[in-house]
Amino acid sequence: MNQFSLKDKIILITGASSGIGRSCSVECSKSGADLILIARNEEELQKTVSLLAPDSKAETIIADITRAENLEELIAEKVSVLGKISGFIHCAGIEKTLPLKKHTPQLYADIFAVNAISGFEIAKNLSLKKYKSEVASFVFISSVAGMVGEIGKSAYSASKGAVIAGARSMAMELSRSGIRVNSISPAMVNTPILEKMFENVGEEAAEEIIKKHPLGIGQPEDVANACIFLLSDASKWITGSNLVVDGGYSAH
Ligand SMILES: NC(=O)c1ccc[n+]([C@@H]2O[C@H](COP(=O)([O-])OP(=O)(O)OC[C@H]3O[C@@H](n4cnc5c(N)ncnc54)[C@H](OP(=O)(O)O)[C@@H]3O)[C@@H](O)[C@H]2O)c1
């Protein structure tokens, strides 16, 4: 039996329409999982579905995770089709690089709503006996920005620090329910969020950021592979941890 396999596991993934979430969806399907995929952009989510391993089953939920009051019902519907959930990746996220003087309470609220609170709320629902299989693993995508300081990232960093801390406490509380909870902190990964960020900071600053990665910028699969490990039985003794996947960025 391959301990790293996700065969017979049903995994729910937010942010599945782009970047790291799309890659997590594709790689989890190749590892044998069936999937429930969530995002707002239906066309892009369907594109993700078209990239999945042909024998994997996938259900989609088109929703804004910060607004969907009926998200629990939508998830319940999909669970009744595919079965109980044994894995969750909270990958949906938004990023804003702005000087502190341009930060507003609304900016903090908007970023926290997607990056942290929505993920915690979905995890709360999935921890209920009626939705979760006997054992389960939850993975929150944080960021190195939640661990080390970066200019213009006060709100984003704060939200990602909250993800690491929230996941750790959740791990303590949910261990008795057979649920492991971990976070992953990537540095810069080649996705649309990064392209946008580089446009904001300008070419020179972008070059400086790239230079800070001893192994260069990451690819979405680099993070997806770490997710597969944390979702699989190979990591059955790991909970409450923050796995740094950063090409050496935070080792300076
Ligand atoms: N790329 C990097 O360098 C990097 C580094 C460290 C951490 N991360 C983290 O990794 C995660 C994925 O980033 P990425 O680079 O893959 O970004 P991305 O390509 O921009 O994807 C972001 C995803 O989040 C979804 N999303 C955003 N707001 C949503 C909302 N209100 N409701 C539902 N879905 C929402 C988007 O889907 P829709 O637009 O279709 O809703 C999209 O699928 C984020 O949490 C990010 O902070 C990224």
TrEMBL record:
Record key words, sorted: Oxidoreductase
Residues of the Ketoreductase domain: 9-187
Record-stated family: Belongs to the short-chain dehydrogenases/reductases (SDR) family.
Superkingdom: Bacteria
GO terms of molecular function: oxidoreductase activity
SMART domains found in the cross-reference section: PKS_KR
Protein name: Oxidoreductase
Gene3D superfamilies registered for this protein in UniProt: NAD(P)-binding Rossmann-like Domain
InterPro entries, per database record: KR_dom, NAD(P)-bd_dom_sf, SDR_DHRS6-like, SDR_fam
Cross-referenced CDD domains: SDR_c
